[in-house]
Amino acid sequence: MRSPWALYRVLCISLLVVLSQARVSTTSAQTPTGSKTQNVILVMIDGMRWQEVFRGADPDLLQTLGSDMPGDAKQRAELARQRYSRATAAERRQTLMPFLWSVASSEGQLFGNRDLGSDSHVINRLNFSYPGYSETLTGLADPRVDSNDNVPNPNPTVFEWLNAKPEFAGKVAAFGAWEVFNGIFRAPRCGFVVNAGYDALTTIPSTPELELLNTLKRETVRVWPDEAFDPMPFHTAMEYLKARKPRVLFLGLGETDDWAHAGSYAEYLNAAHLADDYLREIWELTQSMPEYRGKTTLIVLPDHGRGEGGKWNDHGEKVPESMQTWMVFLGPDTPPLGERKQTHPVSDSQIAATLAALLGEDYGAGVPKAGAIIPDVLGK
Ligand SMILES: [Zn+2]
């Protein structure tokens, strides 16, 4: 015989089922007609300049590369010169970022080529990392976000906002080279997996690959105490993707910025080239999985730009042009307009609402001050 408690449980479960079905139907009603995106993967490449994305490696910087360097560094610089030097800007960018200039440029959209009247930028005026990530992920340029300290973000990210919805709960995850992503995403209270810096990933069943990654994070030399080399977060994120199949995934790569600050244009280019190859791997892997194929949008952008000419390695409030960014959208709902020309300016603050809209969610209704959606990338 059922106890009153058992009956109460049955009643509660029935109620939950009815409520969740009601919620599902409400959500699908909000999904833009024809929207196919079920998953979004957001990749941010720290401090990667629009100049290299659209023009390839800078011939002037390549020219001087390595001339003042000793031994190994000089050899690596020479190698980079051979690798990325080409006669024209079109060839140079194709050589540096072949995925962007094949698949993304023919099937998606790229904003930020100022040579063609397309402007993408951050609005936070500080032009450094935490404010840039926070602007992108929350949709707001909050003046309280004014340092790179690993402190909790005063605002929830769109990832936290989505994870609070039943249809996304537990299907959101963030991976990043920089340990400060813990603060930016407000781990652990955000309620989803944030794996950053050198932290081992232990929340999914171990695999030989994951075990090796965790060992490498522990044992590899730490050139930067708060930031792991990009292969660590990338491969960790891929292991997680295969195991848990998240609907909203963040990947933060950091070597472009680190090598630029170190003054190594060769390694900055190598990091950009590797990041492009990671985008290809992500795209090919997701297109091979039924959970993702034909229903996943990839968004790529940096958290800030850098200076021009001799100031290429610098960024921040005192380098005004480091507000300049770029962005890439590739997915089933984005019309294949390729490299955009003469567009309305877009900003990193519009990413949160656009990402949510691709998933059929109205971020602006929940966070009215967030940047508006970018309509050009919706409604194929
Ligand atoms: Zn940065």
Brief summary of the model shown:
The chain is an alpha/beta fold.
Helix content: 40-55%
Order of helices and strands: HEHHHHHEEHHEHEHHEHHEEEEHH
SS content category: alpha/beta
What ligands can be seen in this structure? zinc ion
What attributes characterize this protein structure?
single chain, about 375 residues, alpha/beta, eight-stranded mixed beta sheet, two-stranded parallel ribbon, 15 helices, 10 strands, about 40% helix, disordered N terminus, binds zinc ion
Structure description:
With 380 residues, the protein is of the alpha/beta class. It is 41% helix and 11% strand. It has helices at 4-30, 50-55, 59-64, 71-84, 89-96, 100-107, 129-138, 158-163, 181-184, 208-219, 231-244, 255-261, 265-287, 351-358, 363-366, and strands at residues 39-45, 109-111, 120-121, 172-176, 193-196, 248-253, 296-301, 327-330, 338-339, 346-347. It has an eight-stranded mixed sheet. Strand 4 (172-176), helix 9 (181-184) and strand 5 (193-196) form a beta-alpha-beta unit. Zinc ion is lined by residues 46-47, 128-129, 132, 257, 303-304.
